[in-house]
Design a protein that fits this description.
The protein is mainly α. The protein contains 25 helices and two strands.
Length: 622
Amino acid sequence: MDQLLQLYVYIPLLAFFASLFMPRKKEALISIFTMLAVAVHLVGIITFIILWAGNNFTAIDLKHVVLFKTDGFEFFINFYFDEVTAVYACTGAVITLMVSIFSRYYMHRDEGFKRFFNTVLFFYLGYSIVTFSGNFETLFIGWEILGITSFLLIAFYRDRYLPVKNGLKVISLYRLGDVCLILAMWMAHHVFQKNITFAELNNGAVMQEYFQQHYWAILFICLMIVVAVAAKSAQLPFSSWLPRAMEGPTTSSAIFYGSLSVNLGAFLLHRTFPLWSEIILVKVLVIAIGLVTSIIASGIAKVQSSVKTQIAYSSITQIGIIFIEIGLGFHVLALLHFAGNAFLRTYQLLVSPSVLSYLIHDQFYSFIPRKRNYSTNFINKIRNTFYLLSVKEWHLDSFLFRYLWNPFKAIGKKLGFMDSAITLTILAGLYLAGLTSLLFDGFVASSFDKFMPVLYSLFALLFIIKAFTERGDAIKSWLYIFSSQLFVALSICLNEHVEVRQVIFYLSGIVVAAITGYICLRKIKAIDNDIELNRFHGYCYEQPGIALIFLISCLGLLGFPFTPTFIGIDLLFTHIHANQLPLIICTGLGFLIIEISVLRIYARIFLGQHKKVYHPVAFRSS
């Protein structure tokens, strides 16, 4: 029975790859295949739950395969099944099946019909990996897939300005959660000296010993997890991204941001509850985030003019309450609440276009305005203040832009000197010097050895920030990003002895992706010698093949799970010690900005309105 568990990841994986080879014009074949694949998966899950119930609901922990192993590190895929997995997997399968059936008619004759169903199956693969994951590494594979599918579905109407812009906005906050999860995994490696599984977290006696020895390190892990789940589930202060994500098709909004993807933050809280349940500070923080988010989001939902925005903030409100329930230890209630909220939001989003058309008559001809209250007492002032803040969505969007991304843009504007040939020559010389000191002991004085990893990591961060703010040539920005990864690898190697094969694991995917992406950009530039990043070019219409290859190159450069770089990132982070704060800050910030920088190049060159006048200009919004 345990070995059957892996099938519930392989079924959506095989279905996704099979859907890629189906003819684009065969709508019936694509949609029916998707529905059958999800239906088979659902029947399999229900059958497994029945068999599991006959085994007294005993949690199943399956170590599936070891992908990489050294003396002090083991990267393996682990699956886990308990009541949390059962609820999330079953709910996800039912909702995905319903949305697939609805989408067959809703997306009929849409130009991106096949692309939509491909992406939905890819999303369902990521969702299945997350729900069946048994350790952080396996969960992170699905977490990354969900991030990129979110971007692709938000920017589904890629000829419009706002979908592409909002797709980048959402992926930037997703990336913040990704980096926080990476940092939690990094510290967990140092605390537990292994890749700990979720089953081991439930061992109270063992965990109590770790709490006594590594309290502050475990507190750091928990805080990083809280930030990651808050960003994933659109809790304060990250709530503003969810209504912006509604720019995609209504059906993708229903499956992603009304029901499944947005609830995975709560899933991670369930999984890691034994880790933070004994830390009062973290419990209070989780409950406080849920409480404040519920109050503020419910107020925002009541005053929004867009039905999608109302549903989005209503969903955020309920997820905040789920956070409170998990923090208080009411896990069964939280699971029931998740399932009920997921089904309700899916239904609301799917029927929202029809409801609007039904109510349009009442909206114009039966509207009765409320009587104005001119009282100026304190209660009315508070009510009016709350109303105005809710209309402005508490300025959450501008708050994040000002305090999260503006500092990096301000720094990037001061890095103009990096464009000069002299500066680049000096940096190349410094890189060669670092490489020489790595190969020949004593090349650099021992007093400088401890500063070199931080120095080279800082150079890598500056390259990334420069690429992030680059408004000129896309090739130049691409090369900045590639250079940053070379400096990251060197900084880690200078910090601690790293096996050659570990460096190869990290750089192999990056080098191949960087070369492939460079060739794609050169081909696009050869068309009319214009790939400036100060505008959208929309080359995906006339060069769809190059656009696809470049997107795959972007994912390879980011260390997506189909490249060995994904394992290499985990490997290199283990060589940063827990007390090396400057090094982990520089490295973490670099990984925070790199995905936004890479996908920004893809969006600017291949998405958006086409710059040629013979292509129709779309509306700014969907």
